[in-house]
Specification:
- The protein is built from 8 helices and 10 strands.
- The strands form 2 sheets. An 8-stranded mixed beta sheet has the order 5-1-2-7-10-9-8-6.
- The longest helix is centred in the last third of the chain and has 18 residues.
- The protein is extended, with a radius of gyration of 27 Å.
- The two termini are 37 Å apart.
Length: 310
């Protein structure tokens, strides 16, 4: 089932307009998440919204937004007042300009979205806008309101649709000067650079996301499954970093290590790795509370597990 659209409205290039819907291009739902529990009872922790002075719980309909002026002074702003801040980008993504992709500083990128026609009408206009951006090899810059805030959005063709990437405003990007000013100006010799380039060439490859695996996520799943099975948990030895004393020697040893690893590698072609998300889904099955297979269920009668302390 496709996720619900985060935003619906119109995409406009001058006088060409079409209805569109904006969908999140990424998801965090596959990651392991934890609840907070009362150690003594094993019950979940519930958070209540209370008045900071009286300590009494406040109903949602009585909660309004407030801007802090000083310690004890707030300017209240209602939902209706926020909705009255009329911006055209609330319902329309107006393409303001076209820029080269290389001109967009990566620090300004926030997160990607998928943009597609909304409904059965407007596909022709959508295709005209999409193919114009594609033929010009540009990125379209517009504005859109999400979660009551206006964002800059960069649009570029992706297959039959458009990918929209939210961009930060300049005031949201910190200057690198305060972080990099203290870095020493080091002269890198040609020999060191040649050795480092050799290591890079040995590790050269292609960007294949299917090869990536979230090792921390996998370790969390293993930990949870071991605890469910009642197995003892032993701490693993942490890898220790070593201080580099002789940089040239370290570079030479790195090259030697890469050559040795290549020699010891099996001659059989490696099997294509499965997608990490698929593997994590399989591993999560015993955690998610789904019904176990019939043969497993027959061996283990359903019973409320006794709570064990970690």
């Amino acid at each position: 089932m496709a996720p619900r659209a985060n935003w619906k409205g119109f995409l406009r290039l001058s006088l060409v307009t079409c209805p569109v819907a904006l969908y999140p291009a990424t998801s965090e739902s596959e990651k392991v998440s934890f609840n907070q529990l009362n150690r003594k009872t094993g019950h979940r922790i519930k958070y209540a919204k209370v008045d900071a002075d009286t300590g009494e719980e406040v109903d949602n309909e009585d909660i309004v937004k407030g801007f802090k002026v000083d310690t004890d002074t707030f300017i209240e702003v209602t939902k209706e007042e926020l909705e009255n801040v009329a911006l055209e980008s609330t319902r329309t993504i107006e393409i303001d300009e076209f820029v080269d992709r290389s001109e967009i500083d990566p620090r300004y990128l926030i997160r990607p979205y998928y943009l597609r026609p909304d409904g059965k009408v407007g596909h022709d206009a959508f295709a005209v806008i999409r193919e114009t951006i594609r033929e010009m090899n540009k990125v379209a810059i517009g504005r859109v309101v999400l979660t009551n805030r206006e964002h800059i959005i960069a649009l570029e063709p992706l297959d039959k649709g458009l990918m929209g990437t939210l961009l930060r405003y300049p005031y949201e990007v910190r200057s690198a000067d305060e972080y990099f000013d203290d870095i020493q100006d080091v002269k890198v010799t040609k020999d060191m650079l040649d050795l480092a380039k050799h290591i890079v060439n040995q590790k050269a490859g292609h960007f294949e996301p299917d090869k990536f695996e979230d090792q921390y996520e996998t370790a969390l799943i293993d930990l949870i499954n071991q605890k469910r099975a009642g197995k003892p948990i032993t701490a693993k030895e942490r890898p220790r970093g070593e201080n580099v004393v002789d940089l040239m020697d370290a570079l030479r040893k790195s090259i030697g290590g890469e050559k040795a690893a290549a020699t010891e590698a099996p001659k059989k072609p490696a099997k294509k790795a499965r997608k990490a998300t698929a593997r994590q889904k399989e591993m999560l099955m015993p955690i998610a509370g789904k019904k176990p297979p019939k043969e497993v269920a027959a061996k283990k009668p359903a019973a409320k597990p006794q709570r064990k302390s970690a």
